[in-house]
Amino acid sequence: MKSISKTCVLTAALILGACSHYSDDLASLDKSMKAKPGIPTMTAAAPQDIAPAAGPGAGSSMEVPLDEYLAREYYALAKSENDQAYDYKAAKQYTQKAVMASKGEAVPPFRVESYDVPEKMVPELNTARGQLISALQQGINTEALAKAQTSFDCWVERAEEASDETHYAECKGAFEQAMATLTAPAAGEASTVYQLSFLQTSSVPDEASKKRIQYIAEYLKAPQNTALTVALSAPADQVGAARLNA
User: Fold this and answer.
1) For the whole model, what pTM was predicted?
2) Phi/psi class of residue 18: alpha, beta or left (left: φ > 0; alpha: ψ in -120 to 50)?
């Protein structure tokens, strides 16, 4: 019985040691985040109030580095998962990413194939990740980029455990808002091109394109944007004509 008891104690100690590792890092981040000067974080805004992704001053040397925003956004996710959702696996992942970003290390977004998400969601998530990677390569508007990346990771991680879309809707919405910020028409640009996608052989836009159309409409309704014009193009066939009309 004594040997069994010792084994149990040893096993318990090992488990506690494994669980406490990321929480120690999270506690360390608590201190470092409070010690750093505050960095403004993105808040919900009407499309006409969102700063353009390019134009005068964009991407200047005065912009906060991406890793600093990533560190704060991943830290916020880790705290939420640890303190409110009690999802310690997710909290550990976000803590590790926050630590990497705080050290200036490259932190890529999650890969969809690494998660057991519903098969029907894979194409949409892969498309979203491709758009995110393209935006990251441009490196403009680090605040929106960080919000887009961390929201994407949240979307993927919650999609794996979701019983319905309400579980990841907030993360998906935050991702789409951040991406809309990145594709906002730039000041002084002659034109900005938006790619819209439709359901196969139909004139019905997919969900992402519906949101993009709504964003563009709201942007054009702003008084300062009333002089802007819109030109539409589509393949010269029956389907293309139906999509233009739609």
Assistant:
1) 0.62
2) alpha
